[in-house]
Prior knowledge:
The structure holds two protein chains of two kinds.
Chain A: E1 2-4, H1 6-20, E2 24-28, H2 44-48, E3 53-55, H3 60-72, E4 76-80, H4 91-97, H5 101-104, E5 114-119, H6 134-138, E6 144-146, H7 151-163, E7 168-173, E8 182-184, E9 197-200, E10 205-209, H8 213-226, E11 231-235, E12 238-240, H9 244-254, E13 257-264, H10 270-281, E14 290-294, H11 305-308, H12 312-323
Parallel strand pairs in A: 2-3, 2-4, 5-7, 6-7, 10-11, 10-13, 13-14
Antiparallel strand pairs in A: 1-8, 6-12, 9-11
Helix pairs in contact in A: 1-7, 3-4, 8-12, 9-10
Chain B: H1 11-21, H2 45-70, H3 84-92, E1 99-101, H4 107-113, H5 117-125, H6 148-163, E2 169-174, H7 181-193, E3 197-203, E4 206-207, E5 210-211, H8 212-215, H9 224-228, E6 232-236, H10 240-256, E7 261-266, H11 286-293, H12 297-307, H13 313-335, H14 342-346, H15 355-368
Parallel strand pairs in B: 1-2, 2-3, 3-7, 6-7
Antiparallel strand pairs in B: 4-5
Pfam families (chain B): E1_dh (PF00676)
Catalytic activity (chain B): N(6)-[(R)-lipoyl]-L-lysyl-[protein] + pyruvate + H(+) = N(6)-[(R)-S(8)-acetyldihydrolipoyl]-L-lysyl-[protein] + CO2
Organism (chain B): Planomicrobium okeanokoites
Amino acid sequence: MAQLTMIQAITEALKLELKNDENVLVFGEDVGNNGGVFRATEGLQKEFGEDRVFDTPLAESGIGGLAIGLALQGYRPVPEIQFFGFVFEVMDSISGQMARMRYRSGGSQHAPITIRSPFGGGVHTPEMHADSLEGLMAASPGLKVVIPSNPYDAKGLLLSAIRDNDPVIFLEHMKLYRSFRMEVPEEEYTIPLGKAEVKREGKDLTIIAYGAMVQESMKAAEELEKEEYSVEVIDLRTVQPLDIETIIASVEKTGRAMVVQEAQKQAGIAANVVAEITDRAILSLDAPVLRVTAPDTVFAFSQAEEVWLPNAKDIVETAKKVLTF
Amino acid sequence: MAAKKSQQFDPVKTLSEIEEKFEMFQILNEEGEIVNEEANPNLSDEDLQELMRRMVYTRILDQRSISLNRQGRLGFYAPTAGQEASQIASHFALKKDDFILPGYRDVPQLIWHGWPLEQAFLFSRGHFMGNQMPEGLNVLPPQIIIGAQYIQATGVALGIQKRKKEAVAITYTGEGGSSQGDFYEGINFAGSFRAPAIFIVQNNQYAISTPREVQTAAKTVAQKAVAAGIPGIFVDGMDPLAVYAVTRDARERAIKGDGPTLIETFCYRYGPHTMAGDDPTRYRTSDIDSEWEKKDPLVRFRKYLEGKGLWSEEKENEVMEQAKEEIKAAIKKADAAPKQKVTDLLGIMYEEMPFNVKEQMDIYKAKESK
């Protein structure tokens, strides 16, 4: 089995699905000859031709609209938004149009589109590149929002996303692109959307996280273990829809929960998770469900990222509050 | 080597030279006379009669829709009278395989493409069954976001090109829509891909109340095509023959692989923006209205056809009666549509219901069965 980075796993998924399904089209800014600014589409144009892997003019709304039109001709578009901070340019095409295609047409049309886009802090980008905007997407009925935390999941989730007959926002954390390798099978496999994974079993506390915060939560769990706390870590993988069953089963077991997200407290997914837990499992709780998030400022100027982004230390600190409540 | 002063590029002069070239294209004048025989599309007698029949029918549909709206029997409605040449004659140049991406005033083109009248009424009433397009009908439901359909049309056109189909994507907006980013992105992308698209801007002079002059410094909307590197044409939007001819030519170019065309139809809406309380007397005078009524597409086309012995009062009455009958029958059908339930709406959100939708489906099913 090959040891792959997340970006390599993503390229492999794209390659597989371009091969499997002639209706899959990959396009966006610089995705053709250049292979994408992160090389996610490296070699794809050469292998599959300019008809199926192509550059577009530089306009995000245009890319979104193009995807919708192509979907109406029976294609399965996989456009790239170069950085997810640019999503504001394409909000109408996403939330106003593709998310509503099935509904607006009374179920007679659909938009099997997967928008791939890099996001996430810790890599010192200029403004509007790294923001965690998954909460905006999750608030649009009609979309699914997927955020892998590792190379293996990235491949299996991307294949599921492309094969899904409804629009999926597939967000790729830039810091995870090349930070570690993992065994990734060459053959195809899928990970169902809407299914979380218990990364680590425990009985004292449930930490629910996604994206780059999964790793931080795992580190925190190890720290806490040294103090004899048994911590369960759940990787949401899909942040809309949530895997309520897995979350609730865990919380009912541990009686204590917290949610970790890289997004600001007022954004992201954590508030949804907390609400679902209190709706469904309040009598199982021995402590309030706390959150570890970034503060409610605009995404940090790059030199301030280290103090702004939540990390394992913050998670340990909050975990102790929950554990000792 | 310094360029000579006389050879210096003069941007002001260049602009005015370009703008002067965008003269209004006309074939049939207000008196119903052919003024541009060379460009006459020479439609057969049957086609001329059919085009007239559709325009008369559409005028009646507009009148009936307004009155049904006032009676509370229709919901959202954007009047179309005055724009029949722009809408119906451009549609007349299309084939069944062509894909229409309409704005919300473009219900008539959808109907003539095959959208059942009762479904148009259900759309107006806000019933999801109105938007369930019959299999094989190549249209989207009317777009509400101004200009969003432009960039989607480019996507459809690119898909048509990739599928090697002999068809075009055609989309409509108003001159207000031509101020949107999506307008520019749409025509620019389509030019870049040489996609078989036709972009129509029905310049009806007012975007709700905002006059044409406020939208842009450009003398015509059509000239915006120049910046995208595609052909643009400024056409008399009250002249059915001219609108038909330019759309047919645009379609031929698109199908040959010569890319998209931008068409500005210079026209007027007689009615309010929509039936939701717009009062045109706040922004137009009755003098302006009567100036435009002299240009009416039905009046000039009727004169032309009567001159050729192809139209009569009797024929016109026949069409009007037919329209009224069919509208009545369609309203009856629309009335028979089942009342919408929340479970209907939950059921059309996703192919497979995710957890949250499924859970709410169960809750509403229980509520609705009470």
